[in-house]
Design a protein that fits this description.
Blueprint lengths: L2 H18 L12 H11 L3 H6 L10 H10 L2 H20 L4 H7 L1 H12 L7 H22 L4 H26 L1 H4 E3 L6 E3 L6 H22 L6 H24 L2 H17 L2 H5 L2 H20 L3 H7 L8 H9 L17 H12 L10 H30 L6 H16 L11 H14 L3 H10 L2 H6 L2 H8 L8
Helix pairs in contact: 1-9, 2-5, 2-9, 4-18, 5-8, 7-19, 8-21, 9-11, 9-12, 11-12, 11-13, 11-20, 13-20, 15-20, 19-20, 19-21, 20-21
Length: about 475
């Protein structure tokens, strides 16, 4: 098939999905397109990179110029982000968002974000660090735009579905028909890697992981109504997207994301069994226990090589060497180098001079280590409090069972496992965005708006919403927050 025809077919399919897909929830406002646009750029490429075309995939330029780009950013991208951020704030103001209630209920996340802001003061490049913090503030604004919607669960579901529609088929088209855009080449070996619509194979793997968990979850919760023609069509669309996700993960060979997708799907299936719904502690106690054992074996006993082999790798692709190198550069174990500051300035030049400059490495490939490098032990403690609080809210949402509980638990589990070999605690990442989105959803953000809307919702509108979502939206036994 000619590449141009493939791109046209993708666009026609995209329009058809947006216009006719029966999975679209009722009364989802146009304001949701603001966080969809934000997340699209986050999960693929920035606007400047899209405009650069295939030039963005080439490795070139001196290390100093690349380092300067990491510090200064891009004016076009900043303008786009500022416009989207302004729109997001305007939407929250128009909805009379209750900031005081939000800060009180989510104090752990609030303290973590504020500490990140304070840490700018001891960064080697305070202004560059502040710009990164301000840009990342947009993530939280977009998350609140989603959850302040009168139907927060429907908005969350629609956001993830639209991102899947946009990025998954487009990545398939890029990999198969636009190799200059969908492939990269290792600067050392010359071996091709596949990135699809994303900027790297790891980023593509993360997008596939998030979308794969969502479409699998959506299929499971719609399965009881599969005889309904509208629901059957939605399930078939989900199946097609899941097939694309599996193909992309195998093509880009993202072993960590592939393993975490399996973990997430197993959690979803387990959560929907009658045994777990009767005794949710079976699942909610097992998961953190297994995670702690895994982390202890992985780091405490140095069994990373065996786990890598189990994932289909011969090694951890140089990660252990990176970890040793960056730990030797940590200057302040207590509070770190400052928000997103470890990979800036002279320290970055020293790391690249140590042999990693050819691939312009700018992350530790471990989320826990990344937080430690930037925010030290204090930042790690604050982050732990937020993660633990999110888990407590997820556990409560199992009593009584809520459909959002299985999705958020799957994301929580996959996210923490994924961080053992990728740095996902960064606000610029899709995984962190979705993790916080799910954590705030079960904490009750948007609950008041959802309750008010439920009282005004007509019988005709209710009938349009699948049974699996109906109780969540109406605040009944499957309430979004308990």
């Amino acid at each position: 098939m000619p590449p141009t025809l493939a791109l046209i077919l993708w666009f026609v399919l995209l329009l058809a999905l947006f216009a006719f897909d029966s999975a679209n929830e009722a009364k989802i406002s146009a304001a949701l397109w603001v966080p969809v646009t934000w997340m699209f750029f986050m999960g693929s490429r920035s606007l400047s990179q899209w405009l650069a075309g295939n030039d963005v995939m080439m490795v070139g330029g001196a290390g100093a110029s690349v380092a300067l780009g990491l510090e200064e950013g891009n004016p076009l991208n900043r303008t786009v982000e500022l416009v989207l951020l302004s729109l997001g704030v305007a939407i929250l103001v128009s909805r009379s968002f209750r900031w005081g209630v939000f800060f009180t209920r989510n104090w752990a996340l609030t303290v973590y974000v504020l500490f990140a802001l304070v840490s700018v003061l001891w960064s080697d490049l305070p202004f560059a660090a502040f710009k990164k913090w301000f840009r990342d503030l947009g993530d939280y604004v977009m998350i609140l735009v989603v959850l302040s919607h009168p139907h927060p669960l429907g908005a969350l579901s629609t956001l993830l579905r639209r991102i899947g529609y946009l990025l998954i088929p487009l990545s398939v088209v890029f990999v198969k028909y636009f190799p200059a855009l969908g492939r990269q080449y290792d600067p050392w070996t010359g071996i091709a890697t596949y990135s699809g619509a994303a900027m790297s194979k790891n980023m593509l793997g993360i997008v596939c992981l998030v979308c794969g968990i969502y479409f699998f979850w959506d299929t499971v919760v719609r399965w009881p109504d599969r005889k309904n023609r509208r629901q059957k069509r939605a399930i078939l669309v989900n199946a097609a997207l899941i097939s694309m996700v599996i193909w992309l993960l195998n093509t880009c060979d993202s072993a960590t994301s592939r393993a975490c997708l399996v973990i997430g799907c197993v959690v979803v299936l387990a959560a929907h069994t009658k045994a777990v719904q009767r005794r949710p502690g079976i699942l909610t106690t097992t998961i953190p226990a297994v995670l702690l054992i895994y982390i202890f074996l992985f780091f405490g006993l140095g069994l990373s090589g065996g786990f890598a082999a189990a994932l289909g790798r011969n090694s951890l692709s140089g990660r252990t060497e990176i970890w040793q190198l960056v730990l030797s550069q940590q200057a302040n174990p207590l509070v770190g180098a400052g928000y997103e500051s470890f990979w800036l300035g002279s320290r970055l030049q020293r790391l690249w001079a140590g042999g990693w400059g050819a691939i312009h490495i700018n992350e530790a490939h471990n989320g826990y280590l990344e937080v430690y490098l930037n925010l030290g032990y204090v930042g790690c403690l604050m982050l732990f409090l937020f993660v633990a609080g999110a888990y407590q809210n997820i556990r409560r949402s199992f009593k009584p069972f809520s459909s959002i509980a299985s999705l958020t638990l799957a994301i929580w589990t996959a996210f923490l496992f994924h961080n053992t070999s990728e740095a996902d605690f960064r606000a610029t990442g899709v995984m962190w965005f979705v993790f916080v989105l799910g954590a705030l959803a079960v904490s009750g953000v948007g609950r008041e708006k959802a309750s008010e809307a439920a009282e005004l919702q007509s019988k005709e509108t209710i009938d349009q919403i699948p049974t699996c979502f109906r109780k969540d939206e109406l605040g009944g036994c499957n309430s979004l927050a308990h």
